[in-house]
Amino acid sequence: MEPVLQNNTLLSLAEEVQQAAAIECSADRSASSHFRLLGLLDRLRLAVESPTETVRRLIYQPPQNAALRTVIDLEVFPLLTQHPKKGMSATQLAEDTGAERALVVRLMRVMEGLGLCACAEPEVYLPTDKTIAFTQPIGRDGVPCLYDLAVPTLVQLPAYFREHHYLMPKEYSRSPMRWAVGQSQFEWLAQRKHQQALFNSYMSSRRHGKPSWFDVYPVERLVQDAEDHDGAAFLVDVGGNQGHDLIRFREKYPDVKGRFILQDLPQVVESASVGEDIDAMAYSFLDPQPVKGARAYYFRAIFHDWPDYICHRILQNTVSALRPGYSRIIIVDCVLPDTNTPLAQSSLDIQMMSIGSGVERSECQWRELLGAAGLEIQGIWSASPEMDCVIEAVPKSV
Ligand SMILES: C[S@@+](CC[C@H](N)C(=O)[O-])C[C@H]1O[C@@H](n2cnc3c(N)ncnc32)[C@H](O)[C@@H]1O
């Protein structure tokens, strides 16, 4: 028999959940109170689950992801959202998707278990409040994008480590993905137009509903004393993909003067539609930065893609463009805490390691990385430990 539950732990956790839920439903709700409630729910579940139930829950995650990926291919969720009241039967879904009815039933059982649809009656499926997110870019494009990009490598990861004597991958060109499928992430994407489009769409959508970097970072630090003529470069979004962050910044701060520049690889900027007040520029950050003396060079989710030696090269290419005493580097990425690392961040770390020998870094690792490029951190801002931090760095004062 499994060990008996610690009643006191369970009851006091349940009480904490109740209090946190009351905050979630009140005007005091914030990013950090929201994540605290989610963390408590995880702990509550673990407290209720027997150890073997925990084992089984983890063992059966891969088939859930595969079923979800298949349901996205079949475009089941957009069909469900067209029938919010009556729902759709397995027979109707089979007719509309071309899948065998019995297969639809088996896949939709999993979707119901994940809360992505509800069953009004046997074999009749209704959308839930989650379904809509799987018809929008974040789910519709994010699920197949990350599944196809990462899962074939993740399946092989244990074999990779066995063969590589459990050494951490340190070179981009010798990443686990390169070993497992022949290419690391950006070459793989560059050769697959459809997957690149899914990736771009997911990048643009994945932070909807979350605070932007400029909601967390005091933007006056950049606006104050910035050169205010139109020719002066104000913000360069390096590796900015479709320019979504710049577009949002312009929406919030339409009066800030100067040039706004989006940089990314040629095949990525060619599909960006950023409007007239943002310049799109094909540029590889592995080369020296051509825009000199901007107020800020902004890197969001860039350094976590790469091992240290490539980050060092990107930083050096940027440092050479900084105007001393004026320019700043703004980095938005995870800053891993020393304990209690949120599972989303530690999982992303394994994913980045797999697809390009990338790294999610702790504060100490950031200080070392930036210090080696002659930079020092002036401040780190964050809305909550579960969210990306904003790091401001400038050349070290001598
Ligand atoms: C994880 S995405 C982050 C995109 C965007 N900054 C964001 O946070 O949504 C990394 C970006 O780096 C770009 N990238 C990869 N290699 C690059 C290079 N050598 N030079 C410029 N951009 C590059 C990719 O095309 C992609 O848009």
What is the strand and helix layout of this fold?
Blueprint: H1 7-24, H2 31-48, H3 51-59, H4 61-73, H5 76-81, E1 88-89, H6 90-97, H7 101-114, E2 117-121, E3 124-127, H8 137-163, H9 176-181, H10 185-190, H11 193-205, H12 213-216, H13 220-223, E4 233-238, H14 244-252, E5 259-264, H15 266-269, E6 278-282, E7 296-300, H16 308-319, E8 328-333, E9 335-336, H17 343-356, E10 361-362, H18 363-372, E11 375-381, E12 389-395
Parallel strand pairs: 4-5, 4-7, 5-6, 7-8, 9-10
Antiparallel strand pairs: 1-3, 2-3, 8-12, 11-12
Bound molecules: S-adenosylmethionine.
Domain O-methyltransferase dimerisation: 66-129
Keywords: Methyltransferase, S-adenosyl-L-methionine, Transferase
Protein name: S-adenosyl-L-methionine-dependent methyltransferase
Written account of the structure:
Helices cover 49% and strands 14% of the residues. The chain has 398 residues and is α/β, with parallel strands linked by helices. The strands form three sheets. The chain has a seven-stranded mixed β-sheet, sandwiched between helices. Strands 1-3-2 form a three-stranded antiparallel β-sheet. Helix 4 (61-73) crosses helix 7 (101-114) and helix 4 packs across helix 8. The longest helix is centred in the middle third of the chain and has 27 residues, at 137-163. It is globular, with a radius of gyration of 23 Å. S-adenosylmethionine (SAM) is lined by residues 186, 203, 239-241, 264-265, 268, 284-286, 300-302, 305. InterPro entries: COMT-like, COMT_C, COMT_dimerisation, SAM-dependent_MTases_sf, WH-like_DNA-bd_sf, WH_DNA-bd_sf. GO terms for molecular function: O-methyltransferase activity; protein dimerization activity.
